[in-house]
Amino acid sequence: MKRSDGQNRLITANWRPATQAVRGGTWRSEMGETSEALFLTSGYTYDDAATVAARFAGEADGMTYSRLQNPTVAMLEERIALLEGAEACRAQASGMAAMTTALLCQLSAGDHVVAAKAAFGSCRWLIDNLLPRFGISGTTIDASDNAAWEAAIRPHTKVFFFESPANPTMDVVDLEFVCSLARAHGITTVVDNAFATSALQRPLDFGADVVAYSATKMMDGQGRVLAGAVCGSAQFINDKLLPFQRNTGPNIAPFNAWVVLKGLETLDLRIHRQSENALKVAQFVEPRVARLLYPFLPSHPQYALAVKQMKAGGSIFSLEVPGGREQAHALLDALKLVDISNNIGDSRSLMCHPASTTHHGVGPETRTDMGVTEGMLRLNVGLEDPDDVIEDLDQALKAAGL
Ligand SMILES: *Cc1c(COP(=O)(O)O)cnc(C)c1O
Questions:
Q1: pLDDT value, residue 10
Q2: Residues 6+ apart with CB under 8 A from 80
Q3: Is residue 189 located within the same domain as residue 326?
Q4: Would you put residue 207 in left (φ > 0), alpha (ψ -120 to 50) or beta?
Q5: Is residue 361 very low, low, confident or very high in pLDDT (cuts 50, 70, 90)?
Q6: What CATH number did the domain enclosing 379 receive?
Q7: What is the pTM of this model?
Q8: Pocket of ligand 1 (CB under 6 A)
Q9: Which of 4, 61, 162, 240 has the fewest CB atoms within 10 Å, counting from its CB?
């Protein structure tokens, strides 16, 4: 195996993101394959006992066991790190494996976390339910309020954890402010960047320490596999994350890593086209509903900030119908082209009612606290012709009395 660039990391590192997405991190076997090879192997064999002993001792490079390294997974990790501008990356079995690993690998009993109150349901569950069981306390705040971050810091605060834009309320966090506040207090920022991806927003450029992903979403982009990733400094990944990951095993399967590698080749194209489509669809829907939240519409409360830190608005927006759950469900049931689905980042347009699906598990009080209302719907706009999506929404809105 050798790198397709003949090991010249200097040249590779200078490629622009769209080039990295297609070629970054490619290793080629002696077969000279064009497309990345899929190594479906759990173990490795060695020419002699000294070779394997040197690898286990950390004195020689090379694979030993697929919970520790796998060539296909290594290609994905290198490509994501290059796209993110990170020193290192480790792929995970799912987005939630990535979030759990990114938090647990660095937190201990007695530590405190400040987290955004609006978050993916399971991310919020980690803060509210999992961490407290291990003596790690959490404060959840309105992450769009800079003063709230400052006010929530305690002497033992170790981590800031948030999404931007957040799922599904589309709250935008001021990355530059929050990351520099964290730096000043020796706090590690963990940013869940699933909605934007590195193609639209690179949190490390704004001073973030760790970027964690559900690669299930935009990175795969075609709704096929679960995948996740954590990026950061070599020190964080090697000293904190790797010992945790190697001994607990939230690893991605090589096949899933290979699917995401192929997905990344078209990430830049897809996310820009889907953002264009989402903007067009959002502009059509906005006048028909009580409220529509899309970061690149001037009506978004943090429009100026979103435009400053993102290249485009992404594929997702949320909206509120005045008639609560009944009207939201009626709209979903009337859809003919757009699927009822709680997935996002797919090339298909998908719509869901967060209160009865993705955010059912957090309970009604937390939903109210986050701003997830009974009339809220979330739409992922895909790669279909946006006029077809608009026509479908038009008839579904009418059917629901809007
Ligand atoms: C989907 C999602 C997750 C969880 O990712 P999985 O791959 O489903 O485990 C975490 N955070 C955000 C913002 C998400 O949208």
A1: 53
A2: 25, 86, 89, 91, 198, 213, 215, 219, 229, 231, 264
A3: no
A4: left
A5: confident
A6: 3.90.1150.10
A7: 0.95
A8: 94-96, 99, 120, 123, 163, 167, 192, 194, 214, 216-217, 226, 228, 344
A9: 61
